[in-house]
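Let us practice reading a record.
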Amino acid sequence: MGAGAPVVVSSQPAATVPHGPPQPSPAVLPGPDPPGNAELPWSEFPAMPPPRLTSMRMEACGGCTTVLCIIAVCVGGTHWAVLSLGEMEDPLPPLFLSAIWAETLVALCCLAGLMFGDPGVVLRSEQRCKPVPDGVADLLRAGQPIPADMRNIEDPVRGTFCVRCLVWRGSDEKAHHCSTCQRCVTDFDHHCGVFGRCIAGRGFRGNMGYFKVIIAMVLVGIVTFVAALLVGMGMRTSKM
C-alpha cells in the first residue's frame, strides 16, 4: 500500500469473543488408536479369569490330609518301635527319634511353602500387557468377551500373548496357562491333582523344590519307621 493511500475502515461490527475456556476444534479431537498401536487404558482390561476354587480346595485338602496321615503313622510307629518294644541299645533310640522328628519338621515346612508360596504366576503389568494385539484390542474396545476358541498370539520378538490372562510370556520362560488355576505360570511342570497347585519353577524359585522335598521326606520317613520297627523287633526276638 502506498504512503498516500486512504485507510478504509470496515463498517462490519467486530467479532465477539465468547466467554469461558476455549473449545477444542473437532479437527484436533483425539481419535482411536492407529492400527497396530492398540494401547488401552487399564480400565478397559477385564478381570482375570476366576480359578476353579472348589476343585483346587478339594485337591488341597486331600493332599494335606494324605501327608499328615503319613507323618502321623511314621512318627507314631517310630515312637512305638523305640519306646514300647524297649529293646534297643544306645545310641539307636535317640537316633531314630531325632531322625523322624527332623524329617517331620522339614516335611511340614515344605508343605506350607507348597500350599502358600507363589509357583511363579505371571502378574499383569504395563510391560507384560502392552502392546495389546490388534484382534484382542478390538474385542476389548467393543466390550466383547474373548472367544473361548481363540488361540494365543505368537510374536517372534515378544513371545506369546495369552488371550486368557492378557499378558505376554517370553519364549524363554517356559510359561503355560493352567486351566484349573486360570493363571499363566513360568517354568510350568504340571498341575498337581493331589495338592491342588501348579508345580513350577527351578529349585526353590517357585514351588518345585518344596514338592520334591516333600516326596523325599515321605519316603525317608517311611524308611526310618520301617528300620526302627525291624531293629526293635529283631533285638526283642534275639533276647527271647
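A brief commentary: The first strand starts at residue 153 and ends at 155.
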